[in-house]
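Hey, can you fold this?
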Amino acid sequence: MTIRTLSATALAIGLLLGLVLTAQADGPAQSPAKVADVARTAPEITGIAHWLNSAPLKLTDLRGKVVLVDFWTYGCVNCVNTLPHLTKLQEKYKDKGLVIIGVHSPEFAFEKSTANVVAAIKRYGITYPVAQDNDFATWNAYRNRFWPAQYIVDKSGKIVFEHAGEGAYGEIEQTIQRLIVDNG
């Protein structure tokens, strides 16, 4: 081996060792699904260009209900993959105190078109309210960073569960079930 090859190998080993030590110092990788460490009051749905499938809603008017706020956009494959799970939850729990609010926050300019969002709602069979958040007012109020992302709000208006990405469908449903039967 040449000195250059040895130097490159040593550098690569050093970088890998640094990554391993950093990962160990940070602790185990966290699941994207988590119960909120400290329940915080859910920010209001705000700055909405259009409400689809519903008249405008306010979280303060939904106290006493369990609310699932879902940030999505129709051009996101991961978002589209979560929609069947959300529509099943809607059908199963809508008469038991669950309200799902889809917050459509566009990733690309063409996703700002209300006609396109309406077509996507129809295509995916979404019957729950959808707030068109073209200016990211609600997205920013929630300090959201991901598509898709779900926030479960308890009957008192506190965020008690957060999840980013696909999956955690069992945890989401268990949280909803627990909160629906909770008399608080």
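Oh, and this one too while you're at it.
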Amino acid sequence: MDIYFELSDLYEEEFAPLTGAKRNGNGHYPVSTPINKTHIGYIIFNANEKIGFIVINIEKEPYDICEFFILKKYRNQGLGQRLAFTVFDAHNVNWSVKQLYNAEQARAFWIKVISKYTEDNYTEQLYEDKKWGKVYIQLFSSKEKCPCE
């Protein structure tokens, strides 16, 4: 869990200008999505270095990608895509992925990844989220591709 908290702090710092998150009394950002029985996380390593994570909500379908982060120096190397594909392939479900309206880089990443994974078989909507305001959401399925069953 310490790995997740350490990486989560860097993630929250990066998104703080968009989310308005503030550091707590200990100098850290609060974790937006704790790991628990309905929220599972995966950590990605490059050699022995921790470089990112993904947290998914498995409470009900569609499973939701709650958090996703790759350290800046490891971006644009295909590692985030590999992590996403691995997680999609591990679960035979429908998925939703959301991005804040102003998070253009995040949206571009997810459109590229989901488009490639699904061979353009996904939908995208813009809607008003109660907590975050305008968000983009992509909906797709790994049921046709999943080798897990």
